[in-house]
Amino acid sequence: MSERTLELEILRYNPDQDEAPYLQSYEVPYNDDWVVLDAINYVKENLDRTLSYRWSCHMAVCGSCGMLVNGEPSLSCSTFLRDLPNRIRIEPLQNFPIERDLVVVMDDFMTKLSSVKPYIVSKEEKNPDDGEHLQSPAELAQFKQFTACINCLLCYSACPQYGLNEKFVGPAALALAHRYNLDTRDVGRSAREEVVASNPGVWECSFVGACSDVCPKTVDPAAAIQQAKIAATGDYFLNFLMPWKRQ
Amino acid sequence: MTRRPYLQKPQRFGWWFRQARYTRYMLREVSSLFIGAYTLVLIVGLYRLSQSQVAYESFLANAMGTFGMLFAIVALCFAIYHTYTWFVVTPKAMPIAIAGKRLPGAAIIAGHWAGFFIASALVWWLAGGN
Hints:
The structure holds two protein chains of two kinds.
Chain A: E1 5-12, E2 22-29, H1 36-47, E3 66-69, E4 72-75, E5 87-91, E6 98-100, E7 103-104, H2 107-115, H3 137-141, H4 154-158, H5 160-164, H6 171-181, H7 189-196, H8 210-214, H9 221-241
Parallel strand pairs in A: 1-5
Antiparallel strand pairs in A: 1-2, 3-4, 3-5, 6-7
Chain B: H1 20-51, H2 53-63, H3 66-93, E1 97-98, E2 101-102, H4 105-126
Antiparallel strand pairs in B: 1-2
């Protein structure tokens, strides 16, 4: 272990004891190849066993360890200490209730995610014996970028619209809805319309673009939402002018 | 152990100063107020023109005065900022693919600027500029 240390300020909240969250400081030795999650693990293992936080893969795949690092929504497993000042403030993701310490309540997101039917809605039930749903590389390229979402909630934490209006369906859920709407194997577009093309759906987004800035998987939810707005407008006029064409 | 989640207070005002990206966004939104105000000034000018030459010349004198010029400069700065920031995000809203290949974002932005300058030149020509 190196001699260098940094000060980690972590927002603590114990629902059994505390009325409100408060900051607690820890002095942590570190190496250049450490990420923020390593420092938090050091605290948990050596300084304070009561600290609660979520993490699993340590390789930016599981999406569990999202938190605010000096105010920026970040995956703590892919944020290197060498890129940060010697005093780091760690807080739970903004815009979500705090369950305990750095753990947030994500029920609202789960409800919204399921409301957009984030799965392929098939025309008819298919058995494995019926063979594959064939798709060309060009058809895959239409939506592939939007499949990379790991549900880490950084986009919800960065989105001021979600912070102002909790009814907003939000970046990740809308990006996934758009991903399935673009999929040639899917016929669920009109079933998703009620949620996606509503006021709390894509129309609550005012294109701040913060969701895409913080997305660790470069999904670009802001792009998905703007494209979904255009599609929703087209659908509206199509339904109006040619109701028989409705899916 | 009880469940008693702490509700983080939503910030109604002042959140746009919390991060530079929020401030940039808010400036883009505010820019539309200045563009709207400038449009109103133009409509007033047209109205004065419809009244009489004297009325129009007094409007022009006001518009070219210190306050009028100051407002025009501020409105122009906001209009440029508005145009620039919206052009930058256009590739997100309109991904264009030609023969299955995604057009790079820079090309889409450049296309918008080209359209902007062509439209501006057309207006300049129609207005009898030389």
